Amino acid sequence: MRDALLGLAENPALPAELFARLVSGGGEDVLHALAGRERLTTAQVSALVGIGDPALTSRLVRSGLVPWSEVPEDHPGRALDAVLGGVAPLAAWWEAGTDPDAEVRQEVAYESDAPAEVLAALADDVDPRVVESAAENPRLPPALLPRLARHPSTVVREAVARNENAPAELLAELLADGGRPAPTRCGACHRRETACADHTPGVRRVRSTAACHPAVPTAGLTAFLDAPEIRTVTTFAARTDLPLHFLDRLAEHPAADVRAVVAANPAVREALLRTLAADPDPEVRRAVAENPAVPLDLLVTVATHERLPDEPAPRVEAATDAELRSLATSRVAQVRALVADRTRLPGDLVEQLAADPDPGVARRIAARPETAPGRLAELVERHGSAVFGPLARHPGCPAALLHRMAAHPAVGRRVLRDIARHPAAPAETLLLCLTAEAPDVRRYAAAHPALPAPVLESLLRDPDEILAGAAAENPALPVTLMEWITTG
């Protein structure tokens, strides 16, 4: 009955008296399941805290459910839990920030809502890990960044280079040579008494991190255009303020990942974009289609030859009504599919594309919530199982159509899974799903509120405990069966 008890603890329709019964008689896993419920009442939170289990109390406090005044004074880690739960007063921040355990102080220094004065103190901590976290925190007073950029450890300097408030002139210094004076510690010896003989790798990481900062002056990036750190190059290659000759050079980078980022950069000149559309790597060519500034004729060319992602294209999102209607009548099916993917689409174009003969266009239209339920049945008549996936996820899919798809011999596991959790799925369809071979399909069906009570009762007695747990979680479970679980 363990899984049934766990499912019941998560059941949104669990009555208050049964909640109390589970608190008094539930095991540790059941208590934690209760603590994870949405919209716990104040009384329920107090009951769980009253158990006196440190791990359970910590979870509740860190979830922000326990006011500071109600956190037990003898609770271990009281101050840190309150900090992480967003319920700590300033005194608790100071308490956690001066904890003897460096890991606790590091967590405080990492918190995005840490008080500036606490962070300022942690920036002088004896443990470099704590200083590193404080140096990266955007709440740190900016006036402290120049001093931390001269810290003996490259790890702290790297954290400064990640700080979103780091000023351009400071980033330029770190980019040039890792900062002055030369560091005496690096990542390898950051916490050791004995320093490494060479900190060059650490200096290189500081410089690379600075190169990734959006505020670093572009003039200093010249030396990184051919850098082997691909992540660094791909990061700054997306900047729209790069000099055009930088983009020209990056477009010839040996790494396709870099060229793809350049191809998607809206600051790229049209001539270069047309060159990248003929790149030998398909990812680069596809990135051209993702460029918000791609000319429509070039977008059509790329879509004619490349398979593009099933997501809105920026250029199509920004298309004028005339451009959109022109694309919707393109001879290239994938161009019409791009229109069907657009976030906002005039109703007449939805109707027009719903009659499109191409399955790729049909799948996009079938996924649109504004497609009328009557059109969905027509899409199945025209395209069959090719449109089952988006139809099973369509919020307005009729119950009869869901059942028809579930009974189809070509239905796949993913489609069945979506049908089993669709709000409109009727009981007879869910019974079909319960006979599926895929365990996840059966579990979703067992938790569906449209299942009749006799079926739920039989599922609770099923030898598959996970299935029984899913039935116990079902909000349609009668209270009598809930009580039977707690006494079984």
UniProtKB/TrEMBL annotation:
Q: What InterPro entries has UniProt attached to this entry?
A: ARM-like, ARM-type_fold, LRR_variant
**What's a Pfam family in this record?**
LRV
SUPFAM superfamilies from the UniProt entry: ARM repeat
Superkingdom assignment = Bacteria
Q: What is this protein called?
A: Leucine rich repeat variant
- Look up and give the organism this protein is from: Streptomyces litmocidini
Q: Which taxonomic lineage is given here?
A: Bacteria, Bacillati, Actinomycetota, Actinomycetes, Kitasatosporales
